[in-house]
Each structure stands twice: as structure tokens, then as C-alpha cells.
């Protein structure tokens, strides 16, 4: 184990021991967790649905749990934040039951992160949110993404895991480790420490849970040189774990030089705000209008905060009309959003309870472990590791970069999972069944046999059944549909979700009737406020 890794483990172990001695370890069991899961809505022949977001689901603009991401066809399911993983899974299951019950029989949900066959970019309809100013803003932002990056990348579906520790955990934790910081500053700094450590070792998430080693050839648009043909209509990489997390998916080359700072909250907000406020020549050439149609919110490096693609984000619930950066600056970090999970096609909801339990323990480890600032040289190693694991993670003998040295992936991954053991023991305390320990044990067994990891299992099933990626995933989607239609919601829950849908439609109508300024004026009012004085942040790269 390398020196920095030893420090990470030692400090995590020391802090766990201090929490146990102080009687505060139970606070780790009452964190809040939630899920955002995306699914492409498709026709029965496997093509992307061209119909609007189903009105019986409610308003994509105002519904709290059923909305859209980039496209009318890219549905997003959102759970509330729960303090038990079982409740997250139960709610996600229920919202799937409702949406299938309200969905036309002509359509179903695609069962993979990587999309079905794409004719061209136009086959992915951009999401619409009605005629209110905020609805039009959300639509124009997505049109801007099309002009900047194209629509193919936007067709990829993923799963986001939101996590926070309880508010009453933090003062005791601060006292236990001997900090004199104000509580809010302490919380912000330690969430950013979590994020830095996730960047260091978060490659283990696509390694263990990645489920997208193959893609329809149409998605590559002829750029197949790096990939190997799998069948007549699919390309793959033999040892890939998550093409979604590779440079054909989630890693955006246009944003490679942004240098968003993760030193602390102030520098993060400043560097992100600069990107939103700084004009970019390529986007200035595109312009704001195509004829009379607005096609970008602005011509800056980022239109808004969410355009920055990252595996982990610090988050704070925003108030109506409030910018995410302003919410963070004013009230600090509330939770983190981990965005590195593929849709798990083998499960009807696309999410597995055991995976969430291991992720929870992993995020707690990232929080408790030593987390120095990330140097430029370490940043290069982080980016190398992320891309290497996404594209070659199961390759025998694969090595990664740690502290400028080469280290075996399987050895490093095994050390990380070993570090989660005491955390899983704390999370299991008081439970009749050691759910966290069992979930961790399963991942350690899979790691010992890389051919049993989800990405390998998918390729093996395709070979054994002699099916294309498209046909196999369509068959999975049909099986998931049959499962949900055979297990409808009980009447009371059905009425609850119907009520939410009707309420959301009414809220959208109210928004459309309440606008008092034209759209151009509204956008001017939403522009970024003046940047804070950068004098004390001279080390931040614009």
C-alpha cells in the first residue's frame, strides 16, 4: 500500500475509533440518501419514442418525482431523501409501477445506460416544459447543449446517488477530531474532502457496478477505430466496464480545460462562476439566435452550473429563482450527488439495493479519510485512472497511477474494500441481518473473479445467447415491463401518484399565467451576479 493510501486508511480508522468511543458512531447510520434514475422511453420496435412526455405522468416541469432530463424521451425518476436504503428502493419501485401503469402499451423503458439505435441526432427530441419563462429557459438550455455537444451524448442514461450525513452528526464529529472551525465551515470543508477522495478512488464505482461495455454502432457515428465489432450492429471493448463513463460518454472533451477547483467551497463557487461568466469564442460564433429562435442562454463557457459534467457535485436545495452557486455560497453544502452509476439493466428498476449500501459505506470512507488538496500531477493520474478503468478495467494485470507510481488495480481495489469493513459493521449495528457486510462481501467475491462483474456478465450473456446488444436490451426492457404490469400499485398509492400528477399540471398552468415579464427580460434577470473579489483566491485557474 502506498504512503498516501496508508495515511487515508489510518486517519479513517482513527476517526472511526474516536466516534465509537464518544458514542457518536450511530450518527453514521442516519444519513439521508436518494436516487435520480434516467431511462429512455422507446417504442416497441426499440426506436426512441417521438411522443411528448405522457400527460398522465404529470408535468415534467413541476412534478417532484417524474420529470425529464435532456429529451422528451429521457425520463427521470427521483426519490425523496430517506434515512433507510429499503425506503429508497421501495419508492423507486412504486414510481416505476405508476409510470408503467399510466404508459401507453405502445411504449416501454430502455434497460441500459447506452441508448438504443440512433438514426441521427434529430431522433432524440429535446425536452419541452411549456410556455412559462422558466419552462422556456430549461428548453433553450437544452437546445444550447445540442449546438455545443450534439444530442448523442445526451441520450445516455445514468443513476445519481444523493447522500448526506444528518445535521446533528456534525457538531459532535467536529469536537471528536478537535476542530475549532465554525460548524458550517467544518461541514463544507469535510464534504469537499469527501469529493476530493471520491475523485481519487471513485474509479472503483464503474469497476464494480459498470454495466455498459458495449454500444449500438449507430451511437459511434462511424468513429469506430478504437472499438472492436461485437456483432453486425454493435461495437465494444473487451475489458470495458462503463463506456458511459469514457470519453465517448460522460467525459466531455470540450470541458477538459475548465479546472474547476475543489480546494474548498469558495474556490469551487468562484471557478464555476467564472466559467459561467466568461465568453467562449466557439459559442459566440454559434450566436444566441437562429432566426427568431433562441438557441443558447448565453455564449459563455457554461450556460448554467449544470452544464459542467462531473462525477460528484456538492449540492444545496435551491429556492425559487435561486442559482445553485448562490445557494451554496449563502447556505453551504447540504449533500453530495454521485453521478458515476450506470443503469443496472438486469434489475427492473435499474438499481440494486446492495450496490447502494456499498456506495454509502464508500462515501463515508471518503469523508473520514485524509484528503489533501489535489496537485496538478495527481490530477493527471486521476484522469488517467478514470478513463483507463472505464475502457479497460477488467484487463488482466491492469495497473493504475497512485502518487506518481504504478499500482495494480486489483490490489488497490481490494485495499479500498477492506477499508470499508469497519464502516459496514457500524452501519449494520442493531440490524438482525448484516446487510452492509453481505453487500461488501459480494463485491469482494466479484473482484476476485473479474469475469463475474456486471460488465463481463453482460458480454458473456450476449455471447451465450448469440444476441445483439440491441435485441438483448430490448428483451430485458420487455421483461421489466411485464414485471411491473403484473405487479400494479395498490389503489391507495395509485390515487396518491395520480394526485401528484394532477397537482403538477395545475402548478405548471399557474406558472404560465403568473409571468409578468417577457422571456428576454427574464433571462437578463437570471444572469450571473458579479463575481466575488478574486484577490484572496489568486491560486484559482479561471
Tag the structure with descriptive keywords.
seven-stranded antiparallel sheet; alpha+beta; 542 residues; Creatine Kinase, Chain A, domain 2; three-stranded antiparallel sheet; single chain
Q: What is shown here, in short?
A:
This protein is α+β, with helices and mostly antiparallel strands. The chain has 19 helices and 14 strands.
Polypeptide structure, described:
The protein has a single domain, classed as Creatine Kinase, Chain A, domain 2. Helices cover 45% and strands 11% of the residues. The chain is built from 19 helices and 14 strands. Strand 7 and strand 8 form a beta hairpin. The chain is globular. The C terminus is likely disordered.
Gap between N and C termini, in Å?
36 Å
CATH top-level class:
Alpha Beta
Q: Give the overall shape.
A: globular
The gyration radius over C-alpha positions equals: 23 Å
DSSP summary: helix tally: 19
CATH topology label? Creatine Kinase, Chain A, domain 2
Give the total of domains.
1
Amino acid at each position: 500500500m502506498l504512503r498516501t493510501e496508508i495515511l487515508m486508511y489510518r486517519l479513517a480508522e482513527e476517526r472511526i475509533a474516536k466516534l465509537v468511543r464518544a458514542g457518536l458512531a450511530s450518527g453514521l447510520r442516519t444519513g439521508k440518501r436518494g436516487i435520480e434514475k434516467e431511462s429512455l422511453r422507446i417504442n416497441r420496435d426499440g426506436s426512441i419514442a417521438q411522443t411528448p412526455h405522457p400527460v398522465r405522468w404529470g408535468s415534467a416541469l413541476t412534478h417532484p418525482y417524474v420529470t425529464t432530463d435532456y429529451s422528451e424521451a429521457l425520463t427521470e425518476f427521483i426519490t425523496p431523501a430517506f434515512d433507510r436504503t429499503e425506503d429508497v428502493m421501495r419508492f423507486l419501485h412504486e414510481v416505476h409501477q405508476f409510470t408503467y401503469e399510466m404508459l401507453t402499451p405502445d411504449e416501454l423503458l430502455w434497460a441500459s445506460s447506452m441508448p438504443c439505435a440512433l438514426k441521427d441526432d434529430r431522433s432524440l427530441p429535446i425536452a419541452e416544459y411549456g410556455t412559462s419563462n422558466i419552462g422556456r429557459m430549461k428548453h433553450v438550455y437544452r437546445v444550447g447543449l445540442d449546438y455545443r455537444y450534439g444530442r448523442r451524448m445526451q441520450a445516455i442514461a445514468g443513476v445519481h446517488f444523493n447522500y448526506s450525513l444528518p445535521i446533528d452528526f456534525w457538531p459532535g464529529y467536529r469536537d471528536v477530531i478537535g476542530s475549532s472551525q465554525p460548524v458550517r465551515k467544518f461541514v463544507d470543508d469535510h464534504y469537499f474532502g469527501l469529493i476530493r477522495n471520491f475523485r481519487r478512488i471513485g474509479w472503483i464505482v464503474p469497476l464494480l457496478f459498470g454495466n455498459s461495455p458495449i454500444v449500438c454502432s449507430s451511437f459511434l457515428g462511424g468513429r469506430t477505430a478504437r472499438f472492436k465489432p461485437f456483432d453486425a450492429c454493435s461495437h465494444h471493448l473487451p475489458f470495458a466496464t462503463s463506456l458511459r463513463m469514457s470519453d465517448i460518454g460522460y467525459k466531455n472533451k470540450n470541458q477538459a480545460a475548465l479546472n474547476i477547483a475543489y480546494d474548498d467551497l469558495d474556490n469551487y463557487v468562484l471557478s464555476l462562476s467564472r466559467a459561467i461568466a466568461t465568453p467562449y469564442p466557439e459559442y459566440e460564433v454559434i450566436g444566441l439566435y437562429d432566426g427568431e429562435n433562441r438557441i443558447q442562454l448565453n455564449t459563455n463557457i457554461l450556460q448554467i452550473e449544470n452544464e459542467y459534467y462531473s462525477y460528484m457535485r456538492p449540492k444545496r436545495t435551491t429556492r425559487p429563482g435561486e442559482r445553485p452557486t448562490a445557494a451554496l455560497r449563502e447556505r453551504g453544502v447540504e449533500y453530495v450527488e454521485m453521478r458515476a452509476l450506470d443503469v443496472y439493466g438486469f434489475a427492473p428498476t435499474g438499481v440494486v439495493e446492495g450496490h447502494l449500501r456499498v456506495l454509502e459505506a464508500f462515501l463515508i470512507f471518503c469523508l473520514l479519510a485524509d484528503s489533501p488538496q489535489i496537485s496538478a500531477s495527481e490530477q493527471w493520474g486521476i484522469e488517467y485512472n478514470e478513463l483507463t478503468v472505464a475502457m479497460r478495467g477488467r484487463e488482466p494485470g491492469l495497473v493504475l497511477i497512485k502518487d506518481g507510481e504504478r499500482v495494480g488495480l486489483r490490489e488497490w481495489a481490494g485495499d479500498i474494500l477492506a477499508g470499508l469493513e469497519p464502516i459496514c459493521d457500524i452501519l449494520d449495528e442493531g440490524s438482525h441481518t448484516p446487510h452492509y457486510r453481505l453487500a461488501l462481501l459480494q463485491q469482494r467475491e466479484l473482484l476476485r473473479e473479474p469475469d463475474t462483474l456486471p460488465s463481463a456478465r453482460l458480454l458473456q450473456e450476449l455471447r451465450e445467447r448469440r444476441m445483439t446488444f440491441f435485441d438483448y436490451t430490448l428483451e430485458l426492457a420487455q421483461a421489466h415491463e411485464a414485471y411491473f404490469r403484473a405487479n400494479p400499485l395498490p389503489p391507495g398509492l395509485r390515487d396518491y401518484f395520480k394526485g401528484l400528477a394532477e397537482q403538477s399540471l395545475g402548478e405548471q398552468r399557474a406558472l404560465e399565467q403568473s409571468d409578468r415579464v417577457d422571456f428576454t427580460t427574464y433571462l437578463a434577470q437570471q444572469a450571473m451576479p458579479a463575481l466575488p473579489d478574486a484577490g484572496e483566491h489568486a491560486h484559482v485557474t479561471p
